[in-house]
Amino acid sequence: DCDVYLIAIVMCPDRKLKWFKDNGCKPSEIRDIKTAVIDCWKKKYVPDGEGEEIEPETPQIQLSKYSLPGIEPPPVVDSIEGYLTDPLVPTSSIVNVGGYMKYW
Asked: Which residue from 68, 70, 72 is spatially nearest to 58, judged by alpha carbons?
């Protein structure tokens, strides 16, 4: 197995982890893939290009006084966890813009 293939599939916004479920992977295998993708993202994704691991910033969100207790702020922009929990993008949307590279 090569992580780059797994990561490439997960980074397809119309496939993500669902592709593995649809293609017969066991839940434990999907959990392992998710962990590998998150670990790789945290290790390699560096916006300033210096090669250091970055810590995501905690968003400074002030909730309304009318908010329900226990409501958590949305995930940090560009978090891999947020990406993985976002709904799949329809394949037609990707095709309409000219493919994956133009979509991103």
From this structure: 72
pLDDT at 8 > cutoff 60: yes
How many C-beta atoms lie closer than 10 Å to residue 31's C-beta? 12
In the numeric block, which tokens belong to residue 12?
């397809």
What span, in angstroms and rounded, lies between the C-alpha atoms of 72 and 56?
A: 16
Does residue 23 have a pLDDT over 70? yes
45-76 core/surface letters (b: 16 or more CB in 10 A; e: else): eeeeeeeeeeeeeeeeeeeeeeeeeeeeeebe
Unique residue bearing structure tokens 């250091």: 52
| Closest-CA residue to 21 (of 88, 90, 92) | 88
Mean pLDDT of the chain: 80
Instruction: Of 85, 29, 80, give the one whose Cα is nearest residue 56.
Output: 80
